[in-house]
Amino acid sequence: SYFAESRKGEVNELRQLLKNFTIEKSQKRKRDVIKKVIMYMTLGIDVSRLFGEMMLAIETRDLVIKKMVYLFIGGYASHHPDLAQMCINSLQKDARSEDPTVRGLALRALLSLRVPQLVEYVADPLRQSLTDGHGYVRKTGVMGLLKLYHLDRAAFESENYVDVLYDMLRDSDPQVVSNCVVVLEEIMADEGGMALNRPIVLHLLNRLHEFPEFGIVVILGLLPRYKPENEEESFQIMNLLDPILRSSSPAAMLGTVRVFLHLTGGNQDMQRRVMERVKAPLLTHVASAPPECAHTLLSHLELMGRLCPSVFDDEYRQMYVRYNEPTHIKYLKVNLLALLANIETAPDVCSELAEYVTDVDVRLSRLAVRAMARIACRLHPQGTAGEHGAAVSEGIVVRLVEFLETAHLTQHVAAEGACSLADVVRVHPALRGHVAPYLPRALKHVSDPHGKAAIIWMLGESADILTEAPYALEKLIDSYDAVGRMRGQSVIKAALLTATMKIFFKRPPETRDMLGRLLSHAVEDVSSQDLHDRALAYYRLLRSGPDQAQVIVTGRGPSVDKGGFLEEDTGKGSIRDLMREFNTLAVVYGKTSETFVNEEYRTKAIDVQWEEGEGMAPAATPA
Amino acid sequence: MISMIIILNQKGDIMISRQYRDDVSRAAADSFRLQVIAAKEAGSQPPVKLIDNCSFLYTRHRKLYFVALTRSNVNPALVFEYLFQKIRILKAYLGDDFEESSMRNSMTLIYELMDETMDFGYPQNCAIDVLRLYINLGNVKPQDEPEPSLLTSQITGAIDWRREGIRHKKNEVYIDVLESVNLLLSSTGNTLRNEVMGQVMMNTKLSGMPECKFGLNDKLVIDREKGDPKRPSVEIDDCTFHRCVRLGKFDADRTITFIPPDGEFELMRYRVTDNINQPFRIIPVVQEEGHSKVAINLKVIASFSEKLYATHVVIKIPVPKNTARSKIKVSFGRAKYEPEQQSVVWRVKRFPGKAECMLSADVELMQTVRAKPWSRPPLNVEFQVPMFTASGVHVRFLRVYDKSGYNASRWVRYITKGRGYQVRI
C-alpha cells in the first residue's frame, strides 16, 4: 500500500541521515536523528535494517545518545546476532569506562542483547561488576546475573553465583541487597524461594529502615517463610515492623499485615488482635488512596473480614458508597456491607442498601438487594445471632417483599428480590410465611426468567401455608404455549414442573389434573431436551409408585449448615488458601494463583508448619 | 515481576512500550485495547484484568493509560504504587498536566526513565530528586558534568530521597495543610458519614542536610505535655507518613522528625472523625409535584467565623432528565440549569462566614411516554475555605537544625476543601 511504501521511504531517509552522522557537528541534530529512529521503533515500524548504521553511533561521549543506541540494540540484537557481535567491542570498552554511570549502562546493554552466542563476551564484565566500587554498577550487575540465568543456565551454574549472591546480601548499598533478594527469590522459585536462616533475617531486619520504598516491600515479602526460634523473637520482629504500618505505602502496610498474621501462627485470638491493630491504618489508606489501590485494599479487607468476622463491624460506615466513586469500588463496598452488618447495625446498613437499590446502575442495585438477603440469612436465629436476629431478618424480608411489588417500575429489582427471597427461604424455611401471600401477585408482574422461576419455586415450597398456590401455577399451565413464547422459557418451565410435582404430593386431589396436563405438555415440548427428559422421568417415577416418587421429589437434602452463611460468604476459594497468598493478585481475583498463573511462573508454596501449641500464646501482648 | 509497561492513548495506540521480559508481546496491547479500552471498561470494571493468564494492571492520567503486564502472581499494591510513582516522575519532568503531545516530544527522556526506574521487571529507586540529578533533559553536556563518581553515589546510598550539598540563598519552608471533608447526610438529615482526610504538603528550600521537627496540636502530645487544658487539641484517628519520617520515633513519643527531600512532597496524611466543624449546613427540600413539576428549596448556612470566607462554592442540585425549564431565585451568586450535568448548578465566588443563603427553584418537566421514577441522586457541594481546618488541626511548630545553623523562614497555609460533600434528597 501507499502507506507502507512511504514508511519504507522514511526508513531509507533515516539511513541517509545516519550515514552523515559521524560528520555531523551539532549535538542537537545528532540526537534528533537517533530520537527519530527510536520513535519509529515505538510505533512498531521495523527499523532493524538500520542496525549497522546505529552501531556506528555508539562511539560517542553523549550519554543521551548512548542510552538511545543501547535501547535500540537491546530491541533488535536478537534479530541480528551477527551484527550484534560488532557492537560487543564498544560495549566492553564502555563497561571499563571511568564513569560508573557508563559502566552500569554498558553492562545493562550487554545483558539485554539476549543472544546466547555472545554470552562468553558478557561473562567477564559481569563478574567484574559484582565487585565494582560503585553501588550503581553492582546493582546492575546483580540484575545481570538474573538475565544470564534466563539466557544461559549452564554459564550461570558454571560459576558459583548463588553463593556470591548470598554473600552480597551484606553489601553496603541497600538497593544492591534488595536486588540480590529478588534475584535469589526468582532463581530458587522451584525450592520455594531463597533460603532463610536466622542470621540472614536478622541482618535484613536490622537494616530495614535503609531500604528504598520498594526494597522494604521485597524484604517484607520474605518474612512469611521464616519461622522465629521462639515467641520472644516473634514479638521482637513485630515490634520492629510495627512502625511500617504508618508508612504511606499501602504495599508496605499490607506486607506488614501479612508478616503479623504469619507470626501469630494461626492463633485466632492473636489474629484478632493483629486485625484490631491494623484496622485504623488500613481504613486511612482506603479513604485516601487512588481508586486502583483502594480496590486492592478493599479486596484484602474483605478477605480479612471473612477470616476474623466482627473485627471491622463498627467501621461499616466507611463502606457507604459515594455517588461519584468508580463503580468497581461501589460493588466491593456493597459486598463488604453485607459482610460487616451485625445485629445492631443491620437496620442502618439495610436502609443504606435500600438507597442503592434505586440507583441507575442495574448491577449495583441488584447487588444491593442480594446483600440485604445475605444479611437476613446470616442473622436469623439458626444463624449466629439469636432471637433478636429473627426480628431483624424478618424486617429485611419485609423490605425484600416490597421490592417484589415494584415489578411494574423496575423489573430488575423485583426479579433480584425474588431470587434473593428464594435464597433466604432455602436457608430459613420458617420465613416462608412472610413471603407467601405476595407470591401469586408477583408471579404475574415479574417477567425476568430467573425471577419468575424463583417465585414458582417458592410457591412450590409454600403449598402447605398458601391456599391459592396451586391455582397460581395452574394459570401458567393453562397458558403453556404463552409461556413458551417468554424470554428464558426453559428455566421457567423447569421450575414450573418441579414446583407442581412438589405441590402434588402435598395436595393431591386439587392438583392431579393440572399435573397431568403439565406432564403431557412437557413431554411433547420439543424446545428443550432437558425439560422433555425431566418430564418423562417424573412421569415414569409416578407410574412406578407414588410413594417412592414422593420420597424422591420432596426429600430434603441435608440442611445447609454454614452458620447461615451463603456460599458467597464462605466459598470462593477457601479463606485459608487465599490467606497464604495475601498481598498478591490472588486476593484481588478471589482465586488461588494456580488458576491464573502458568506453571513456569509459580513459586513453590512452602508452608511453615506450626506445631500444636506453638505460635503465640494468647495472653501475651505486643508492646 | 513486571514483563512490560505500556502507555497508550485514548484510542489505544501505543505511545511508549518498554519490554522487560520476552514473555509478552506487543500483541498483548491489542487485547488490552479491545477488551478494556474499546469495551469502555475503565472505571466500571476492576483496574486489574486477566486475559489469557496475563494480568493487566492499569491506571489513568488524563486520557492516557499506564499499563503494567505480568504473568506471575505479583503484589498488586506494589505495581500500582510503581505506576503512580511513574506518573509523578513524568509530572515532575513534563509538567502536571502532561499529555500525548508533550510525551511525544520527550520520548527519549521517557525511555531513560523507564530504564532507570525498573530493571528486568523489578522496580528500582524512583526518588524524583535523585533521578532528576542525572537524567536531565539532555541540556547539559555530559563532559561538563561534575565528578561522575559523586553523581553515582547519589543514585544509591542510604538517604535515597535527598542528595548532599544542596544550597539555597534563602532558606524557606512552605507548609500547606489541606483538608478534604467527607460528609454524607441522609434525606432525613442524619449524618451517615463525617470525616476529614488531611494532608500536610511541604515545599522545602533548605540547604545542607537539615533535621526537622514538626508538631501539630495532636491531643496525645498536648495531654502529655500537660499544657493549658483549654488549648484546643485534636484527636487524630490515624496517620501515615512520607518515608523520610522516622517512624520508630513517632511510635515512641509521637514526635515527627525527618530529613526532608528538597522541593515539594507530602509529609503526612491523617484522618479525623470526631468533633468536626462542618463549614456548611445545608437544608434541602425537594418535592416532586405530580409528573410535571419539581419544587426545590435550599438553605445554606456558613458556620465558620465571619472573618473568613469560602471560595469556589459550587452546589449541584440534581433534577430529572426530562427537565424542560426552570425558574430559579437565589439570594446571591448565580444559578442556572445545566442540562449536561442534569443539575441546577449554583455558583458563589465568595461566600462570607456566618452568612445564610437561599435558593428556590421551580423545575418544569417535559411529558414522557413512560413515566420512569426519578432516582433522586444526592446533592453535591464543592467549596474551598482558606485559613480554616474542619478538624481544628493547626501547626504548632517546625524546627530546622542544620550544622551551619541558619535560620529558615516558615510559611503556613490552611485550606479546607469540600470533595465528597453529599446530601441525599
Q: Oligomeric form of this entry?
A: heterodimer
The count of helical stretches of chain A stands at 34
- Over the alpha carbons, how many angstroms does the gyration radius of chain B reach? 26 Å
Task: Tell me the structural class of chain A.
Answer: mainly alpha
Low-confidence stretches of chain B: 138-157
- N- and C-termini, Cα separation of chain A: 74 Å
Mean pLDDT of chain B: 86
Main sheet of chain A?
none
Q: What overall geometry of chain B do the principal axes of the alpha carbons give? A: flat
Mean pLDDT, all residues of chain A: 85
Number of helices of chain B: 8
Proportion in helices of chain B:
10-25%
Which key features would you list for this structure?
heterodimer; A: mainly alpha; B: 425 residues; alpha+beta
Description of the molecule:
The complex is a heterodimer of chains A (623) and B (425). Chain A is an all-alpha fold and 623 residues long. Chain A has helices at residues 2-19, 27-42, 51-56, 63-76, 81-94, 100-111, 119-129, 135-151, 153-158, 161-168, 174-187, 198-206, 213-222, 231-241, 250-263, 268-288, 291-307, 327-340, 346-357, 362-379, 386-404, 411-427, 432-435, 439-445, 449-461, 469-478, 480-484, 489-506, 508-524, 529-543, 546-554, 567-570, 575-580, 585-589. In chain A, helix 1 (2-19) packs antiparallel against helix 2 (27-42). Chain A is elongated, with a radius of gyration of 34 Å. The N and C termini of chain A lie far apart (74 Å). Residues 562-572 and 617-623 of chain A have low confidence and may be disordered. With 425 residues, chain B is of the alpha+beta class. Helices cover 18% and strands 42% of the residues of chain B. In chain B, the strands form five sheets. Chain B has a nine-stranded mixed beta sheet with strand order 11-13-9-8-23-21-16-19-18, with no helix packed on it. Chain B has a five-stranded antiparallel beta sheet with strand order 2-1-5-4-3, with helices on both faces. The longest helix of chain B has 19 residues, at 76-94. Chains A and B meet through helix 2, helix 4, helix 6, helix 8 and helix 11 of A and strand 2, strand 4, helix 2, helix 4 and strand 7 of B.
